[in-house]
Design a protein that fits this description.
By secondary structure, the protein is an alpha/beta fold. It is about 35% helix and about 15% strand. It has an 8-stranded parallel beta sheet with strand order 1-2-3-4-5-6-7-8.
Length: about 280
């Protein structure tokens, strides 16, 4: 089973996508399964993991409802507010849906990433680590130090770094991202998505070689057993269409990756991580 392990669907009229405004005309429209299907077929992808795009419980309910009628959705990564005293109840309610596979921590949206080190937040993360629940980690590279500290406090977390932690690809910044990612990869239950890279490059003037050093580093650190492909569609459209995004990845993958490794990259690892 070939899987796109990171993409989004949304319906603008739902009204809870605060970041989605008319100032982003390319994205300010509905994106639904019928829009993605031609791309999945062209690249031989069978299933997807749909990831939340709004910090509301209602959007997770919407995605689970969509997943119930859409065969190509293998799983939904929802949203939880770990500052909400009722987060366990919300998780238990979502978990009753057969396609709910985990949730995403939106560190990127925090004014102060150090807040993830508050005792109540660490306790919440530990609750999910003890239950081996898959957790997506949306973080930008300047927030990696607090995340490294969190993983030292909760070393058993089953987590995946979204979008290779959004390094400054447009500026060619590799440090301290390389060292911070090495510290994260040292945790055996941490994975990484090769996703969302084109939007961290110069949207209009990127070149395929701009991504090589980043992709090679992630593959070297996490190995073929802990990396997975994600398109970040339709957000990727800000910089590249689905075909271009796929070409970037395929050109930069180390030649030593054999067919079994690529099978894991394009499905096997996601199926394992999300317990499909």
């Amino acid at each position: 089973m070939r899987i796109d392990a990171h993409q989004h669907y949304w319906k603008v009229s739902r009204g809870d996508y605060e970041w989605l405004t008319p100032e982003l005309p390319l994205l300010y429209r509905d994106y639904l399964p019928e829009d993605l299907q031609p791309h999945l077929r062209r690249h031989g992808l069978d299933k997807t993991i749909v990831v939340q795009a709004a910090q509301t419980l209602e959007e997770t309910d919407y995605l689970l409802e969509l997943a119930g009628s859409e065969e190509s959705i293998a799983g939904v990564v929802g949203w939880l507010d770990l500052n909400d005293p009722d987060y366990q109840d919300h998780y238990e309610r979502f978990s009753r849906h057969p396609k709910f596979v985990g949730f995403r921590m939106m560190i990127q949206e925090m004014a102060n990433a150090e807040d993830i080190l508050q005792p109540h937040f660490v306790e919440a993360v530990r609750y999910f680590a003890e239950r081996d629940i898959p957790v997506d980690l949306l973080v930008v590279s300047r927030q990696l130090d607090p995340l490294v500290k969190l993983l030292e406090l909760v070393p058993g977390l089953r987590g995946v770094i979204d979008h290779i932690a959004k390094p400054g690809i447009a500026a060619g910044e590799l440090h301290p991202w390389k060292e911070q990612m090495a510290a994260i990869a040292a945790h055996p239950k941490l994975y990484c998505k090769l996703s969302g890279m084109v939007t961290e490059a110069d949207h209009q003037h990127w070149k395929p070689e701009d991504f090589t050093a980043y992709i090679e580093h992630v593959v070297e650190l996490f190995g073929p057993q802990r990396i997975m492909f994600g398109s970040d569609w339709p957000v990727c459209l800000l910089a590249a269409n689905y075909d271009e995004m796929m070409d970037v990845l395929m050109q930069a993958l180390p030649g030593k990756l054999g067919d079994p490794d690529k099978e894991r990259l394009f499905g096997g690892t996601a199926a394992e991580f999300y317990k499909l």
